[in-house]
């Protein structure tokens, strides 16, 4: 993440454009390429294209005014479209033969049964490329879906994915077989290899002590769920109790962050995390620095925004519903008065370049360590010259602290194949649940 995948692909596409120019009129002249991206990244691709490969002719095939004639594709070097548009126009795209088919944020088709996954596999093309900072987020079936696009049939009907263990936690021999089979088709770039001049980033966990009223609320909820949930697991088993487990963990996490997330009437009550965050932000802003604040719960965002506005602090914010994504990013990057950027964790994995920020605050831990890494990498990217300081805010003696303990012991699955990415929920055992509720 943040290692220049987009720029590297633009260099490839520019080389294909030159070849098209050299072979004008020849039978073996390469055609245009298609790049499929999440809708929120359209502006990023066009902006980066204009900056690094200005001679490339892009066709933005997206929105209600897009054409419905595939012959238009041939007049351009790159057809830029979204996963949603490709799904709706699958037959139109299947009518045309492309030079390269490139999937950006390719984990968008990690579920083989979705319409988007089926649509990308209908593309007719000479070459296929999948770009992702997190090719495995939860289980190995996601990686197999990507390879069904890249090299259809390579893994076969009975592939190494079912040789031993499970998709979430295969045995060591299965991992070795997979690593050997897939390594020739994966280019993994790390910051140590590619960005040796990138300044270091520093990560620190800040522990927040709940005050008496918040502690009372949290302990009451924890005791309730510990009694009811463990009894249900004993009676019905873990698999039949997953919905209740998720609900319990959600409520406990909310109580650890702010009482107002448990009930609106509690919005005015004190929160250890909020007070700690505001004190940190005051110091950062006073010293003239910029900061990113990543959050999960939008209701917490409303409470935070009201406190920031009372302090007259300028900020931008972005979530999955933000329409002017490009404007938010540009204002934060270029306006010295825009001191903070509040960003939804669900929106972080989509190509944001926020290199003017020196401080990153993670308001609440995420089950998937890869998502947290993506958040920090929004600031720690090629092109920055100053250090990045990242802080995780953790409520002491709560489910958040237990999640950190679990993360330390549950990160080995994807690292054995290509990188360290694993969701915790799908691999919980009873002893893990008892730890979380302790």
Structural summary, described in words:
By secondary structure, the chain is an alpha/beta fold. Helices cover 41% and strands 14% of the residues. The chain has a six-stranded parallel sheet, with helices on both faces. Helix 1 packs across helix 2 and helix 9 packs antiparallel against helix 10 (242-257). It is globular, with a radius of gyration of 24 Å. Residues 411-424 have low confidence and may be disordered.
Beta-strand segment tally = 11
Structural class by SSE content: alpha/beta
Order of helices and strands: HEHEEHHEHEHHHEHHHEHEHEEHEHH
What is the domain tally?
2
C-alpha end-to-end distance? 35 Å
CATH architecture title of the largest domain: 3-Layer(aba) Sandwich
Radius of gyration: 24 Å
Reported for the largest beta sheet, the result is: 6 strands, parallel
Task: Give a concise summary.
The chain has 438 residues and is an alpha/beta fold.
Observed structural traits:
single chain, 438 residues, alpha/beta, Rossmann fold, 2 domains, six-stranded parallel β-sheet, five-stranded parallel β-sheet, 16 helices, 14% strand, globular
Topology diagram in text:
Blueprint: H1 5-22, E1 33-37, H2 42-52, E2 58-60, E3 78-82, H3 83-88, H4 90-94, E4 97-103, H5 115-120, E5 124-130, H6 140-150, H7 172-182, H8 191-194, E6 201-208, H9 212-236, H10 242-257, H11 272-286, E7 291-295, H12 298-310, E8 315-318, H13 325-334, E9 340-344, E10 359-362, H14 369-377, E11 388-395, H15 399-409, H16 430-436
Parallel strand pairs: 1-3, 1-4, 2-3, 4-5, 6-11, 7-9, 7-10, 8-9, 10-11
């Amino acid at each position: 993440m943040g290692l220049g995948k987009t720029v590297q692909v633009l260099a490839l596409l520019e080389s294909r454009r030159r070849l098209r120019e050299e072979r004008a009129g020849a039978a073996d002249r390469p055609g245009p390429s298609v790049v499929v991206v999440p809708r929120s990244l359209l502006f990023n691709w066009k902006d980066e294209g204009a900056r690094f490969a200005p001679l490339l002719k892009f066709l933005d095939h997206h929105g209600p005014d897009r054409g419905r004639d595939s012959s238009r594709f041939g007049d351009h070097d790159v057809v830029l479209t979204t996963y949603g548009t490709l799904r709706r126009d699958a037959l139109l795209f299947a009518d045309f033969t492309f030079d390269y088919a490139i999937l950006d944020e390719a984990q968008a088709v990690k579920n083989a049964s979705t319409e988007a996954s089926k649509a990308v596999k209908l593309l007719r093309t000479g070459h296929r490329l999948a770009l992702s900072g997190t090719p495995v987020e939860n289980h190995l079936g996601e990686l197999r879906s990507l390879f069904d696009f890249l090299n259809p049939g390579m893994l076969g009907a009975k592939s190494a994915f079912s040789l031993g263990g499970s998709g979430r936690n295969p045995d060591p021999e299965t991992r070795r077989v997979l690593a050997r089979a897939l390594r020739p088709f994966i280019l993994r770039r790390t910051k140590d290899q590619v960005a040796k001049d990138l300044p270091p980033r520093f990560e620190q966990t800040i522990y927040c002590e709940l005050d008496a009223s918040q502690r009372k609320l949290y302990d009451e909820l924890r005791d309730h769920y510990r009694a009811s949930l463990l009894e249900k697991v004993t009676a019905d088993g873990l698999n039949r109790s997953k919905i209740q487990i998720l609900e319990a963990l959600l409520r406990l996490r909310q109580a650890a962050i702010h009482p107002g997330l448990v009930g609106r009437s509690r919005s005015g009550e004190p929160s250890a995390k909020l007070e700690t965050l505001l004190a940190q932000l005051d110091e950062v802003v006073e010293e003239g620095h910029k900061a990113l604040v990543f959050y999960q719960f939008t209701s917490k965002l409303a409470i935070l925004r009201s406190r920031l506005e009372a302090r007259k602090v300028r900020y931008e914010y972005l979530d999955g519903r933000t329409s002017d994504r490009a404007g938010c990013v540009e204002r934060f990057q270029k306006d010295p008065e825009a001191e903070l950027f509040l960003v939804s964790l669900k929106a972080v994995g989509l190509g944001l370049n926020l290199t003017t920020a020196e401080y990153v605050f993670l308001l609440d831990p995420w089950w998937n360590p890869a998502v947290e890494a993506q958040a920090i990498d929004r600031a720690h990217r090629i092109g920055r010259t100053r250090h990045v300081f990242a802080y995780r805010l953790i409520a002491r003696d709560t489910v958040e602290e237990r999640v950190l303990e679990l993360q330390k012991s549950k990160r080995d699955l994807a690292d054995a194949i290509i990188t360290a990415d694993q969701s915790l929920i799908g691999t919980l055992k009873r002893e893990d649940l008892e730890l979380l509720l302790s």
